[in-house]
């Protein structure tokens, strides 16, 4: 898989403009703020606004997911499998691991990586 530089990516997506990104960023921040403040109720309201769907329970029952998956054609199933692989690979590339080595004299060298709660 080819990895693009940021400059290459921007050229591959000519309709993407920085002004559009700034507008979208503000919209996303507003949505995140609403969800942080109002929780599941905000998710329900945005689902109704964006998807025209009313939902009571945010958790999809396992049997319903299995049935939905079984109803997909082979191409759709293949796309889901490929998406899972790509998302997993992306996450792995972002992960920073702790490591430790013990020297012959007993000293320990290494790096402990701890995630931040917020920045």
Secondary-structure blueprint of this entry?
Blueprint: H1 6-12, H2 18-38, H3 40-51, H4 62-70, H5 74-94, E1 99-102, E2 108-111
Antiparallel strand pairs: 1-2
Helix pairs in contact: 2-3
Could you describe the 3D structure shown?
This protein is mainly alpha-helical and 119 residues long. It has 5 helices and 2 strands; from the N terminus they run αααααββ. The chain has a two-stranded antiparallel ribbon. Helix 2 crosses helix 3 (40-51). The protein is extended, with a radius of gyration of 22 Å. The mean pLDDT is 84.
List keywords for this structure.
119 residues; 7% strand; extended; 2 strands; two-stranded antiparallel sheet; mainly alpha; single chain
Please work out how many helical segments DSSP would assign: 5
- In what range is the share of β-strand residues? 5-15%
Order of helices and strands: HHHHHEE
Radius of gyration: 22 Å
Q: Bin the helical content.
A: 55-70%
What characterizes the major β-sheet?
2 strands, antiparallel
Give the strand line-up of the largest sheet: 1-2
Write down the overall geometry: extended
């Amino acid at each position: 898989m080819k990895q693009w530089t940021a400059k290459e990516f921007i050229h591959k997506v000519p309709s993407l403009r920085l002004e559009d990104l700034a507008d979208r960023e503000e919209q996303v921040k507003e949505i995140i703020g609403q969800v942080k403040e109002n929780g599941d109720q905000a998710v329900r309201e945005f689902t109704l606004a964006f998807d025209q769907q009313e939902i009571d329970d945010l958790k999809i029952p396992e049997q319903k997911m299995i049935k939905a998956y079984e109803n997909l054609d082979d191409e759709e199933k293949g796309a889901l499998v490929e998406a899972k692989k790509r998302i997993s690979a992306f996450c792995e590339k972002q992960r920073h691991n702790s490591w430790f080595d013990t020297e012959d004299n007993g000293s320990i060298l290494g790096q402990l990586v701890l995630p931040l709660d917020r920045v």
